[in-house]
Amino acid sequence: MPQLISFTDKGLFCEAGNFYVDPWKPVERAVVTHGHSDHARFGNKYYLCHRFTRPILQLRLGDNNYQTTEWNETINMNGVKVSFHPAGHVIGSAQIRVEYNNEVWVVSGDYKTEDDGISGKFEPVKCNAFITESTFGLPIYKWKPQQEIYDDIITWINKNKENGKTSILITYSLGKAQRVLQAIKETTQTIFAHGAIYNMQQTLIDAGFDLKPVVRITPETPKEILKETVVIAPPGAEGTSWMKKFHPYSIGVCSGWMQVRGNARRRNVDAGFALSDHADWNSLLQTVKATGAERVFVTHGFQSAFSRYLNEENIAEAAEVKTQFGDEDEETDSPLEIKPVERADHE
Amino acid sequence: MNKELDIASQERSSELINSSGLELFANLVSELSTSTKTNEKIQSLVNYFAIAPDADKVWVIAIFSGRRPRRAVNSRLMREWCTEMVNIPEWLFNECYHTVGDLSETLALLLPDEKNENQKTQSLAYYLEKFIAIEKEDENIKKKFIVDSWQQMNKSERFVFNKFITGSFRIGVSQKTIVNALAKVVELSPSVIAHRISGNWDPVSTTFQELLSESVSLSDFSKPYPFYLAYAIDDDIENLGEINEWQAEWKWDGIRGQIIKRNNELFVWSRGEELMTDKFPEYFILKDLLPDGVVLDGEIIPAEDGKPLPFAVLQTRIGRKNIGKKQLQEAPISFFAYDLLEYNYEDWREKSLTDRRKKLEEIILPIENNAIQIPEIIHCNTWNELAELRKKSREMNSEGIMLKRKNSVYKVGRKRGDWWKWKIDPLTIDCVMVYAQKGSGRRSNLYTDYTFAVKDGDKLVTFTKAYSGLTDKEFAQIDNFVKRNSIEKFGPVRTVKPELVFEIAFEGIAASNRHKSGVALRFPRMNRWRKDKTAEDINTMDDLREMLKMYGK
Known about the structure:
The complex is a heterodimer.
Chain A (H helix, E strand, L loop, with lengths): L5 E2 L4 E3 L4 E3 L7 E3 L14 E5 L3 H8 L4 E4 L5 E3 L2 E7 L7 E7 L2 E5 L21 E6 L11 H17 L3 E5 L5 H9 L6 E3 L1 H12 L8 E2 L13 E4 L15 E6 L6 H6 L4 E3 L7 H11 L3 E7 L1 H10 L4 E4 L27
Parallel strand pairs in A: 3-4, 4-5, 5-6, 10-11, 11-18, 12-15, 12-16, 13-14, 13-15, 16-17, 18-19
Antiparallel strand pairs in A: 1-2, 2-3, 7-8, 8-9, 9-10
Chain B lengths: L1 H17 L2 H14 L3 H14 L2 H11 L10 H12 L3 H11 L2 H8 L13 H11 L4 H14 L2 H12 L8 H12 L3 H8 L10 H4 L2 H6 L8 E2 L1 E2 L13 E7 L2 E8 L2 E6 L15 H4 L4 E11 L2 E2 L2 H8 L6 H6 L2 E11 L2 E2 L5 H12 L7 E2 L3 E2 L4 H8 L7 E8 L7 E2 L4 E5 L3 E12 L8 E10 L2 E8 L5 H14 E5 L2 E4 L4 E6 L1 E4 L7 E4 L2 E5 L11 H12 L1
Parallel strand pairs in B: 1-13, 2-14, 8-10
Antiparallel strand pairs in B: 3-11, 3-12, 4-5, 4-6, 6-7, 6-8, 8-9, 12-14, 15-16, 15-19, 15-20, 16-17, 18-19, 20-23, 21-22
């Protein structure tokens, strides 16, 4: 009998249930962990996702055959039980629990264990086999408590104001943008945003989430009203002529990669805030232990180091798996990649 | 609103007053590394110099001008102590190190966070002087000091602390930036400051006042002048105007140096402001041959009977602590003096090049010793004539031509306008990338360090590494390629599918038995990414041997 979830060139495949989890090539049935573009792609005939993810997919992928589910609701697919559990990564992000013949597998998608108050509180799910991400799977990645980072961001914004500068915060439109906006909503009355950020934020507000509205920057937005304000922009906007309007400004990047000085220096930004939507080293380890899984498959990130450590420390029998969720470089918050979805629209 | 801001900034400055010297410095370093504009950097330094303890300021000047205490603890021990504290295997430490690309930062990131709030860190001078004090102590004492210190520090303090121990403190501030900041603080001109902080002084026994006072520079006879550096010419040569306003010289390929004779003593300085007197016994005789109170600018060059040899010859003796008979015989050197900065204890830098050259000839020509010579001026009537002559540079073991305006003064640092280097085009070769390794600093976690190969029959032979010459965007694309096309992983090195072709440019080639290919290149860098070529089209080992025959000697 093949293993419950096998690793194919189209993606993580559950043969018994005849579905894929986050496939990277078009398939009949896709179960989608969350709305980031390396996990939710075009061209599938059927999408199963959490209710919160649906408006995100609708925004990014347009009309498709979507079916939604609630947390912990069991869906039967060919006799295989499938359920969604909060992954704490972004709004709607889920770990997928798959059960068949008394065997339980969990696909983590992307996850973070610290509760950001928006993305749902992560819960480890008991299983026999756990497929985990490893984006920040090295012990150099240890996050500060989020409140400390938010305080740093606010201090930075105030300092920029004192110096007569606009603060441009670079965040991904899904996930980091919502977190940062919640954290700074009291510091300034109006927050301006790039079109990509605005679209996502507005989509989520329309879907019923209680989030801070942002003002979209258009070619008509007068330069004067932007002075000393806060602007949220996606990575694709960094360094483009779109930024000229905000001069004088200071750029701060919110990304786990900012943990290492070299990354911040390479991007030539004024400030780097190591704020991540992924689990750090200790959280990855704790999660693996909490699932009780005997077998662990390590995907995208530092998979070779993390799986070797799990094996050597006898935490689990671990193996590396190659996926197209990126290969230590192109996670959604990679230091370099500029995702087409996030691209600045020079409007 | 303004009132609130006022209070906020007052709070901040009172916080700063409570900060330890190390903390102030750690803050300075993080400010410097995130600001991208020189003026902001200067302002950060000025602010720092305004509040830092005097002893710390002296150390900061010392460190940024290349004077650091000898390594008190070797880095292997620091790694051991850290892995022990964090309880991780050595291989995992190495993975982290290769991802971060900087040992000090890796240590700072790995060490446990819990800082005891009641324990305050000390001044910068305290730690640096402590390093000197424990240098000869045994391992346990060193370990106790380092581990205890780590436990009192936050992450950014640990980072700078580690940097002091491991050396190589590069944080994007040139000595010139420091000099400009100091000039603002003490209200002296940058060239006076540059002169005062150069030379032979000890941060332990020198106070900030002494360092920047007139009397000190008078008594320090070894003190060199800051070098004047030329830019490469980037415009049509004709635009320099009349050729007779210019003095043309061959550009020699050696080590830029200053020879100082004062108080009947001889000092040899390199451009990196390293005192190298002992490395060149050939020059000792100049103490008797040169007049007193003289400073010469020129090139330290391997030469036989006044004829320059390839630079590779000099390389065999540069790194050595002791120069033996063998090196003296195989790599004889001479000093090609081309400028006069001081004569009779008088600063001559404000005089015109023509005047300086005339006096220089008066001093050097009568000496008639292989240890020193005055290179000839090239006389040409037209730019075309000079351009023709320039083509012969490589035969002369010269890198091209220097053009200096005849009425120019001797400036400080790299300045445009009066001095230009007109170098010959480099040698080039097409080759394929076969290994890649992650870089360091701002290239951390990016594959930016490559090894290249040429064809030898149906095999590939590696012959050089190169790290520079591409844009950030190109590096990002290649990084992506490496991650997708690596074949095997050997520690930090990945073997890569031999597909990407590059044109490597270099300044010279020499035979070498340390390299598999039998050749060593001088200043190799990536000139172009040849996307139009495949691995089939690259040069061969025979091509390299041919180049070695023509230019290697």
